[in-house]
Specification:
Length: 307
C-alpha cells in the first residue's frame, strides 16, 4: 500500500513546454529539452527543408561561378521593376546645346537603354556635365514618367591658341576651354604665341571692321608680347603697330578694296608707321621687275644710239 501511495505522490515528468521552469536540470538537458520543444512546432520541418534547399542552391551558384550574375540581377531588381511599370527613360530634351554632341551629353548624364528615371541621380549627372570644359553651367531635371530635361550654358569657343607645341580652344575671356582635337572648331581664328590668349579679343574685334582682311587672315602671331603680325592665305605677312592697330587695319582694308594688294607679288606689308606703308615684294617679283628694268634700259640705250 505504501509503495502505491508513494508512486502516486511521485512528480510526473515535466512537460517540454515548461522546461525553462525545471529546476536542477543540467545544461545539456536544458539544450536538449529546448531543441525537442522547437522540433515539435508546426511546419518546422518544412522551414528546415526550405532553408536547406536554399543554402544548397546558394552554395552551388557560388561554386559554379554564377553568383556574381545572380547578385547583379538581385541588385538590379528595383530598376527592372521600375522599367516594367513605365519609368524607363525614353527621351532627353536639351536646351542651349551648341558645341556639345549628343553622345557627350548622354555619357555625362549616365543614361543607358535600361536607365530608370526614379533611380537617376540628377546631382551627379550635373556634376559630370560641369566637368566638360565646354559647359559653364547646367541644370538637370526629371520629368516623370520617362523624360529628362537638360539646360546648358556653354562656354562660347572664340579662337584657337597655339603655344608650347599645342593648340587649345579659347573662350571669349581668353580662358583655355579644351585641347583642339577635332574639326568642329577648325573654322575659328588662330592666334599664336605666349600671352596671345589674353590679347586676342581686342584684335579679333578690330578685324570685324575689316572683313576683307579678316577673310584672308588664317593666323595672328603676337610678336614679343607687344604687337601682331597677320599671316594671310595668299602668303602675305602684315605687320601691325603696337597701338592703334584698328586704324592700320582700316587702311589695309581700303588698299585691298582699291588695289587688290593681296593678289600681287607681295611678301610683306608693313603698317607700323602711321605715315607710310612699306611693301616688300617676293623674290620672284623682285627678279621679274629687275628683268623688266634691264630690258627697258637696253631698249632705251638702243633707241638713244639710233638717234
Amino acid at each position: 500500500m505504501r509503495s502505491r501511495a508513494e508512486g502516486a505522490r511521485r512528480p510526473a515528468r515535466p512537460s517540454l513546454d515548461d522546461v525553462d521552469e525545471v529546476m536542477g536540470a543540467s545544461f545539456s538537458s536544458q539544450v536538449r529539452f529546448k531543441f525537442e520543444r522547437f522540433a515539435r512546432r508546426p511546419r518546422i520541418g518544412l522551414y528546415l527543408t526550405i532553408a536547406f534547399l536554399g543554402g544548397t542552391g546558394l552554395l552551388g551558384m557560388a561554386q559554379g561561378g554564377h553568383w556574381p550574375t545572380v547578385k547583379a540581377e538581385i541588385a538590379n531588381f528595383p530598376v527592372t521593376a521600375a522599367n516594367a511599370v513605365g519609368f524607363r527613360v525614353v527621351a532627353v530634351q536639351t536646351e542651349g546645346q551648341n558645341a556639345l554632341t549628343d553622345d557627350e551629353v548622354l555619357l555625362a548624364l549616365g543614361i543607358r537603354e535600361d536607365t530608370a528615371l526614379p533611380f537617376l541621380d540628377v546631382g551627379a549627372a550635373r556634376d559630370r556635365l560641369l566637368q566638360n570644359p565646354l559647359v559653364q553651367d547646367a541644370t538637370v531635371r526629371k520629368l516623370f514618367p520617362d523624360r529628362v530635361t537638360v539646360h546648358l550654358v556653354e562656354r562660347k569657343p572664340f579662337a584657337l591658341w597655339q603655344h608650347d607645341g599645342k593648340v587649345q580652344i579659347l573662350a571669349e575671356d581668353g580662358t583655355p576651354i579644351d585641347d583642339f582635337r577635332d574639326s568642329r572648331f577648325a573654322h575659328l581664328p588662330l592666334v599664336v604665341g605666349p600671352a596671345a590668349n589674353t590679347r586676342a579679343q581686342a584684335l579679333l574685334d578690330a578685324l570685324q571692321f575689316a572683313p576683307k582682311v579678316r577673310e584672308e587672315t588664317y593666323a595672328a602671331v603676337l610678336v614679343a608680347e607687344r604687337r601682331w603680325n597677320l599671316r594671310l592665305r595668299s602668303g602675305v605677312e602684315v605687320k601691325l603697330p603696337e597701338f592703334e592697330f584698328g586704324a592700320a587695319l582700316a587702311r589695309l582694308e581700303t588698299m585691298q578694296s582699291r588695289r587688290d594688294v593681296f593678289s600681287k607679288w607681295i611678301s610683306i606689308i608693313d603698317l607700323r608707321s602711321a605715315d607710310k606703308t612699306v611693301v616688300r615684294l617676293t623674290n620672284e617679283a623682285a627678279e621679274h621687275m629687275a628683268q623688266d628694268d634691264k630690258t627697258a634700259s637696253t631698249k632705251a640705250r638702243k633707241k638713244a644710239g639710233q638717234t
